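User: Predict the full complex structure for these chains.
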Amino acid sequence: GQQVMQIPQYQHVQEGEDFTTYCNSSTTLSNIQWYKQRPGGHPVFLIQLVKSGEVKKQKRLTFQFGEAKKNSSLHITATQTTDVGTYFCAGLRYTGNQFYFGTGTSLTVIP
Amino acid sequence: EPEVTQTPSHQVTQMGQEVILRCVPISNHLYFYWYRQILGQKVEFLVSFYNNEISEKSEIFDDQFSVERPDGSNFTLKIRSTKLEDSAMYFCASSRSAAGGGEQYFGPGTRLTVT
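Assistant: Here is the predicted structure of the two-chain assembly.
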């Protein structure tokens, strides 16, 4: 079945350090979305990537979609305590209408 | 800013009982979803709904589950005979366009506890 894995599962960083989470799919994806979930909260949409090799930036966040459309990454530059939460990727296959969420990366930022 | 709302925020029920979880999607959205998240785990797709019918469902969404849009605003998830393993956070989401084209707005969730 469809598998979407993320590494690392947990990441602790000092405030100001960079952070990257990687998302890998077992199958080629039509597109991929990224969500952030604060502790006790609900997933909040961050970005959608559609094209092979696409790179998008949102302030300190950089999102990439791999050339083969099977992997993606989220990089945060100079983390802040407000970045704390779990980051999920969610991939959509070419067939069907459901997003397969990744296993998530929980980010802790130490002030 | 418009938001998805869900009620109740927490539901405790006994095994074998029926529960109905309620959601009010954003008013001009056309696509509706239910997801569940077992504590500390990933978000799992249950079902998508468009034009008054199920457009896709996962293996989790078996005969014990059903969805309805009883009126123009509510979207409900019913679990007929709850099991202990149904304990989870259930999120409703809606989007303006189909999954391939748009962001999903998630509600705050209903925490279901089956005892």
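Residues 65 and 72 of chain A are 4 Å apart (CA to CA).
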